[in-house]
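ingest -> validate -> predict -> emit
validate: passed (alphabet ok, no gaps, 901 aa)
predict: started
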Amino acid sequence: MLANVWSDLRYRLRAIVLRSTAERELDAELRFHIERETEKLERAGVARNEALRLARVSFGGLSRIKDDARDARGVALVDATMQDLRYAFRGLRRSPGFTLAVVGTLALGIGANTAIFNVVDGLLFRTPPYLIAPSSVNHLYLAYDTRGDHAIDDSFEYRRYQDFRRWTSSFSHMAAYSLAMIAVGSGQDAVEVPVGRASASLFDFFDARPVLGRFFTPQEDSLPAGSMVAVLGYGFWQTRFGGRRDVLGQRIQISSGEFTIVGVAPEGFAGASGDVPAAAWIPVTAYGALQRPTFYQNYNWGWLQVIAQRKPGVGETAAIADLTHAYRLSWDAQRALESGIDPVDRAHPHVLIGPTQLFRGPMAPSWVRVTLWVFGVALMALVVACANVANLLLARGFGRRREIAVRRALGVGRGRLFRQLLTESLILAAAGGVAGFLFARLIESSLIGMVGGSVGAGADCVDPRLILFCAALTLLVGVATGLAPALHSGGDLNGLLRAGSREGSYQRSKLRGSLVVLQAAVSTTLLIGAGLFVRSLNHVRAVPLGYDVDPILIVQRNMRGVKLGPAQERELMERLESAAARVPGVVRATQMMSAPFYDFENTGLFVPGIDSVRKLGRFQLQVTSPSFFATVGTHIVAGRGLTADDREGTQPVVVVSAEMARRLWPGKSALGQCLRVGAEDAPCSTVVGIAEDTRQRGLSSAPDPTYYLAAAQQSLTEKRPRIPFGLFVRVSGHAADYSDRVRRALQAEMPGASYLTTVPFADIVGGVQESWRVGATMFAALGGLALVLAAVGLYSVIAYGVAQRSHELGVRIALGAHASRLVRLIMRDGVRLAAAGVVIGAAIALASGRWIAPLLFEERPSDPAVYATVAFTLVGVALAASLVPALRAARVDPNVALRSD
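emit:
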């Protein structure tokens, strides 16, 4: 059976690939049979010529025999397809303007969708390379109630991770890891790169073999301090070590420790993060011991993420129950070590699980949801592009209807005509798909940078998944755009042969008008979305932050194992502040202990007359120098700020924000009030000033209560003295332009292997505004594209209608119709189509409001100003698109129009 199938398949493939040889063999075989039949007739006494004629007649016609043979070989379909392709290419070559317009339109739509799919695929669907059985691997999240709020976190303490391993039984593997920017190398060669801190069990999740050496083992990741070994990332091995194979055994400084290289990870290996390959992997216990020798004994350092692989047959519900039980036991263990922890029945600790793709988990940032909306918007823009192309193909088909009628009269079947027109559409879509793929590569890096920097950076534009998506989308577009013209290639054959140019055009114009209404409706919906996001972004930018952003540079010190006493740390910070102020272009500098949206500090507060300050909210602590308020631009609204007189040995003072004053001393003046910081018996810090409110953690919530202490007044005898860790530096221009200059100037003040990092404050604040910026940019871009396509579609419909009605318009002018009346008549048709689209699009936008509302900022999804602006814009575009055809209609020469009919 299989032998027969294989023989038949080889026969058919040979007939297609070696077609000329098969045709020669067929001709030779037919000549042989005709010659034998001729000889047989000659032996019966028939003359040679008559015998040859009778032999050919007995076979029933050579052409029919050849066609039957080709059908049997499966070549007939190939022949017909090749003919259709040649016919389509000839037709498109004769209309280069039409071809370029269609291909360009499809390229924009397909390219935008392909690029956005690449990002969405990387965010939500692409699993980490080499991961075994990804459907059974889960990322773990801790959830609990605190002070009336429900908190979700994926930061584990190492001891909590141990508790989960000890008290769960549903998992075959569990691993802890984290990725952070850490200095690698020493001296001038030190660079901050992503470094993975991982338990040895992480490598059990992957089917990956090192290209050199080995991964570190559980023995090297054991307590109390692990082993100082490292596995290099493939990319870092190539760039830093030139891919040399003698790196094994060499030592490299990572953070404050010297690590021995024992292996090189395979290319593309990124652990559980999936999109950011680490420069090196080190044991989690070794890194923990470097930072805090007692890291595994308490629950006060949450720095790890945890993944777990369920055992076969264990479902998600059972796994969650097992994890929650372990978490409750771990919670009680923490309460035994620490005071002030709510009991289990009040905190309700439980565990949530999610896939390895973190952006599908419960902590996904809002810009991920915006990106999904943008993907939907891109598909809607593609619908507009398809409607536009279908309109152009319909117009082309209407212009060729007499040609099609003649072809049908000559015997071409409707099925063959349908296939030819569909083939033409598929060719155009294929060209648009190739151009769109190239366009996607051009905009991919910009799109990835817009929606998350390194997110999706591991995705390659030649990824088979991406190619498959682009190909499927191209095929769908080709069929969708070619279906309507192909279906309308029929009609009354006799009527089409007798008809003039006006016959049958009215019904088909209704179809084209419907497509224009569809384009206008989708454009309206997209432009309304763009308007809502633009207004949201404006509202975000208008939020009073309480400080300046663009001219501020954040300088952070990393001691990298260099040990300094409190007095030496204070002296170092004062030297850094003075050195920064001397850098050309720097206006002033100040010390800081926390930075909005970046790093937070708080401690216990006690106020006479208030039982629990903690119940009134979270109060942000800032320890700084006297120049703080002038440097960051925060104004003092009452009293005074910190001064040089606020130094050690003088009365402790504090400046509080207006929101903090309202919470702690409602209805009273905060000036002169007593605030005890750190302990109930701490010295009383007198409130000497009230600063304007600032936003520290979020834009949508109320201002964060903040208090400011003088660095010079902080006691150096405490167990953990409050000493600033960095600087705010104000420059005369944009902070990014001064980043490297300031870092180089201050690095000379750093002792030993310690170093500084600089971050423009605008980069941090810009990240908080990311979701609204992405929404505004992408909605506006795709909405603008849809608007242009809708305008082109409307213009083509009106222009085609004017051409079809030239006889009617000529009669009207001959009978005395005024040109202005004709202009109004034509433009009214365009406005009517646009108005219908606006009404439908506005209704769709209103219906979608409840889903898009959570993504907006202080903006209603039914904002009448946005709807009115979009409606006027669409109508204005419709008037502009109708104007040229209307003026052309007014200039119709009645004599020419009547003679041409």
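The mean pLDDT is 83.
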